[in-house]
Amino acid sequence: MTLSVLTELAEANRPEQFALLEHAAERLASSDAVTTLLVRGSLARGTADRLSDIDFVVGVRDSQFEEYVSVLDALATTELGSILPGWRDSIVGDMGGLGFVYLIGWAGQLQQLDLYLVPASHIGQVREQADCQTIFTRDRSAEFEPDSTTARFVSGEVSRPRTCTDLLVEAMVVGYLIRKRISRGQRLIAYSEVFLFNTAAKNLIKAALAPRSTYYGWYQLEAEVGATPIGRECLAHLTALISAPGIPTLASLTDGLNRVFAVAELAAPDAIDTIRDAIDAYRHYLELP
């Protein structure tokens, strides 16, 4: 670990974030598959506040990339205290890898941990592309050759259809992001994320009730899912979601989250059962009724 960089970050940021940053860096670096750790975002720039996320780029040996992705949720849960499986981040820019967002229970609060996994052969490109600081390098002299198998795996993961559980997790993570925007008064960013939240709810309904749909986006949604009582009830919740204020309040966000959970209970009860304990923890941290 580059202690001088960590020391600088410790002086520039709140202790809560730095303590989690240091803990996460140590746990991630303990795997031989990890070659490099970069910190980016407000923590790297020294502009973080109490709501700032912790944003890592994790260089992983090309030959071990797929295996590392497969165990990442387990590592985040057991080693870092994530309350949810990772959300496959669809907001982060493409740097040749895969992004995941975790919600970590830390010091009695939820903290956001962003992990962007990139094949070690791409780390040089990421350093040029992203504003980041290196805090760990396993072997400065090592060189890594690109692996076409890893590139195909990344492409396959990006295009893989999301399960109902994936989409429920997405709605919960985006709900947490919206909560932060409301707290910061970031009205325009909150507005953009409300659309993402509502789209996750729509996609959850489609994945559960019209999994073989050939229509794009919102097209023919009422015809495809509105033929059954469950479908009509789900559409009623979705209509309420998209009719809520474009710029959210805590009250509208709470109502929206409860509607997403209601939709999941109706249309995808197995998804609820899979992460029921995580939902309870999420409700506790966000103080949802």
UniProtKB/TrEMBL annotation:
What residue stretches are annotated with the Polymerase nucleotidyl transferase domain?
26-65
The record's annotation in Pfam families points to:
NTP_transf_2
What molecular function terms (GO) are annotated for this protein? nucleotidyltransferase activity
- InterPro entries cross-referenced by the UniProt entry: NT_sf, Polymerase_NTP_transf_dom
In Swiss-Prot or TrEMBL terms, this protein is called Polymerase nucleotidyl transferase domain-containing protein
* Species per Swiss-Prot/TrEMBL record: Nocardia mangyaensis
